[in-house]
Write a structure and sequence with these properties.
single chain; about 400 residues; alpha+beta; six-stranded mixed sheet; 14 helices; 19 strands
């Protein structure tokens, strides 16, 4: 048999860009999907170059994605070029490309992606799949060869720009039942930035540091009202209160750390005291009304999405909920989602979530599904060749990649 062509798998998110070769167990590189200019530098750093930056204070960001959709194609192409040529070191004319795209993407943006893949980089074959569809291959590895197998599931993608709930019936998305919550990791970081700037230090320019603080200290509350009362107590009784030591940049450390309560206090350290911010920030995913977004939370979006499907399928969909995306990594996130959904779902339906194994990560989950898509042969079935594109143009892509049209 002829050797299978090399296929680059690219999961292009609003926050990170995951890239690797199809068939691998993990992506070769996970890089921030942005260009960063440190305050003492004249040039922008992209992709893997960002790891060279030492001082992240007051850095200037340029992001190719706005609200989840690619708006700056020149910058996005620059990031991809760096990944293909310097990180993966592949010749784009001799391999295929499997790329993710946003759910319900605009037709003009899809055409632009087709054009860049075939005309700018000259890939031999190309396939674009929304990330929830890619995630199914990792969640249902037994059925990876056949996308039309009898499986019913709901993929909840809690990303950087927003959260999407996508129900699948026989592994095909039910477009009219897709729901979106306009809260994502970016909004949570910006909210934490504003709260800290109002209560403690002005940190409106410290996006990278606030992002790190959010990842280190925030946790999902299982009982928000009780935890708010708890967070108002005095120092020793307050289980949420902690001190975060901010980086001085004199010791060469990029980020700060949580101070051990037993450690001696150092007068030179700049300390940020945090309490109820730790639970109020992730709470926005479940109650967006707290900051004036007139929408239901994540659990309500899942219940509405399932309700919009055929009544006979409701029980099956509740039994297979797959949660992916970086914002799903908050501690207790799944337990809180289950608790809220249990109140909204009919009592005779069992609710079951996809359980992550030790080597599975919500951030890389969709990429791993794409990699499995290549190794199972599904990519060969769904991809479009360069020759077909040159003959029929973007219309061929529209006919071939019909999932969300």
């Amino acid at each position: 048999a002829a050797p299978r062509e090399t296929v680059v798998v690219l999961d292009n998110g609003g926050y990170t860009c995951k890239a690797g070769i199809g068939g691998q167990d993990a992506p070769t590189s996970v890089v921030p999907n942005c260009a960063i200019k440190p305050k003492r530098e004249r040039r922008f750093f992209v992709a893997d170059q960002i790891s060279e930056i030492i001082d992240f204070s007051q850095v200037f960001y340029r992001r190719p994605c706005e609200r989840g959709y690619i708006t700056d194609w020149n910058l996005q192409s620059e990031i991809w070029e760096r990944l293909f040529k310097h990180v993966l070191k592949v010749n784009t004319n001799e391999c295929g490309l499997l790329a993710s795209e946003p759910v319900l993407n605009l037709g003009s943006l899809s055409r632009q992606m087709d054009e860049i893949a075939f005309e700018k980089y000259g890939f031999k074959s190309f396939c674009r799949v929304p990330s929830p569809s890619m995630a199914l291959y990792e969640a249902n590895p037994k059925n990876a060869q056949d996308l039309m197998s009898e499986t019913y599931s709901v993929v909840v993608d809690v990303g950087y720009s927003f959260a999407h709930v996508v129900p699948f019936v026989e592994e095909m998305p039910v477009n009219h039942a897709i729901r979106r919550v306009n809260v994502g990791g970016k909004l949570l970081t910006n909210y934490l930035k504003e709260v800290i700037s109002y209560r403690a230090f002005n940190m409106m320019d410290e996006t990278a540091l606030i992002d790190q603080i959010k990842h280190q200290v925030c946790t999902t509350s299982l009982d928000f009202k009780t935890d708010l009362v708890e967070s108002k107590k005095h120092t020793k009784e307050n289980k949420f209160r902690l001190e975060y030591v901010l980086p001085s940049h004199m010791d060469g450390k990029t980020y700060g750390h949580i101070r051990d309560p037993k450690a001696k206090k150092n007068d030179e350290e700049q300390v940020l005291t945090l309490s109820n911010e730790r639970v109020t920030v992730p709470e926005l995913l479940f109650t967006p009304k707290l900051i004036g977004i007139n929408q239901g939370g994540l659990a309500q979006a899942i219940a509405e999405s399932i309700k919009a499907c055929h009544p006979d399928l409701h029980g099956l969909l509740y039994q297979n909920i797959i949660v992916i995306g970086g914002s799903a990594k908050f501690p207790n996130f799944q337990q809180r989602l289950e608790k809220e959904l249990r109140c909204l779902a009919p009592t005779n339906y069992k609710i079951n979530y996809h359980a992550y194994t030790k080597d599975q990560d919500p951030i890389n989950f969709a990429w791993k599904g794409g990699s499995r898509m290549v190794s199972s042969g599904a990519y060969d079935h769904y991809s479009l060749s360069k020759a077909t594109y040159q003959e029929y143009g973007s219309d061929a892509c529209k006919r071939k990649f019909y999932w969300y049209s």
